[in-house]
Design a protein that fits this description.
With 234 residues, the chain is of the alpha/beta class. The protein contains 6 helices and 8 strands, in the order βββαβααβαββαβα. A hairpin with a 2-residue loop joins β1 and β2. The protein is globular. The relative contact order is 0.15.
Length: 234
């Protein structure tokens, strides 16, 4: 179990250019971070998601920087609120994540940090697709209640160690994750949180998600870490 540190992260608003528009984000940096986790939000969510903010706080206390960032511009969010179409454009969202990684590599404070993705719901599919496209840049992926099936053919090309976390009462998504695992060649592990539904609203379940994610990222967001095989459950 990864050990928490009594540190307070400094949070800074950031903007990442997408053409002539901007993606809005919040970069949280603890003292002497060992890695950085970029959050890919789920359907209709944003950097203000209380669940992802909670997980980000736990990761920061484990010595990890976090970037909570909207994958849609304010104008696109207005359209998506009405049509709900952009949140399912997984290829576009994955491309945005790749652009964000490029931006992080150009910033002095984050240029040398190992990077991981934390994807929730549909954001899990976007995170895996982006990880497949940037195998040298992404060191680990964690998916919470994710839709890895939305990554399609990209699943077979993911190189980063991947942790899939699903609620025990989220039967349909459990099966989606198990099916996706069969298509992956990377190290992949499925963790089922007993009693949890899709949004992990039950007492103690989100805390379990955060603890599992912290352990995974602390283990793999290290320069030169030796990857150990993770057995796939039947």
């Amino acid at each position: 179990m990864a050990r928490e540190h009594d540190v307070r992260a400094t949070t800074t608003p950031v903007r990442v250019a997408i053409g002539h528009q901007w993606l809005q984000g919040d970069l949280g940096v603890p003292s002497q971070p060992q890695g950085l986790v970029v959050f890919a939000h789920g359907s209709g969510s944003s950097r203000h998601s209380p669940r992802n903010q909670f997980v980000a706080g736990v990761l920061q206390r484990h010595g990890l920087s976090t970037l909570l960032i909207d994958l849609l511009t304010p104008e696109e969010e207005t359209i998506d609120d009405r049509t709900a179409e952009l949140r399912f454009d997984i290829e576009m969202l994955a491309g945005r994540l790749a652009t964000i990684v490029d931006w992080l590599r150009r910033q002095g404070a984050t240029s040398s940090l190992p990077i991981g993705f934390f994807g929730a719901s549909t954001g899990g599919g976007a995170a895996l697709m982006a990880a497949a496209a940037r195998p040298r840049d992404i060191a680990a992926v964690v998916s919470r209640g994710g839709r890895p099936d939305l990554a399609g053919a990209s699943l077979a090309h993911v190189k980063a160690p991947t942790l899939l976390i699903v609620g025990g009462r989220d039967e349909v998504v459990i099966q989606m994750n198990r099916d996706a695992m069969k298509r992956m060649q990377a190290q992949v592990k499925l963790e089922i949180v007993p009693g949890a539904t899709h949004l992990f609203e039950e007492p103690g379940t989100l805390e379990r998600v955060a603890a599992l994610a912290a352990d995974w990222f602390v283990r793999y967001l290290q320069p030169g870490v030796t990857m150990k095989p993770v057995e796939k459950p039947a």
